[in-house]
UniProtKB/TrEMBL annotation:
Organism: Flavobacterium sediminilitoris
Isomerase listed as a keyword: yes
Residues annotated as domain 4-oxalocrotonate tautomerase-like: 9-59
InterPro entries: 4-OT-like_dom, Tautomerase/MIF_sf
Keywords noted in UniProt: Isomerase
SUPFAM superfamilies membership: Tautomerase/MIF
Record protein name field: Tautomerase family protein
Amino acid sequence: MPYLSFESGQLDEKVKQKLIAQLTQLSVEITGIPKEYFFVSIKEIPDSDIAVGGKTVEAMKNELKKNK
């Protein structure tokens, strides 16, 4: 059974449902495997645990707020 894993920052429920539906549908179209066989996992990672260029996303968001 195919397993799809998606990792990101915080997402609202509507976005997660849309991701699940569209990732599944696209995978069905590409592979021809029925959608009932797909497992989809969404892992939300806190902004303090994601870094880009040596800075956490949390720190980058805080800097953007200060500069507004």
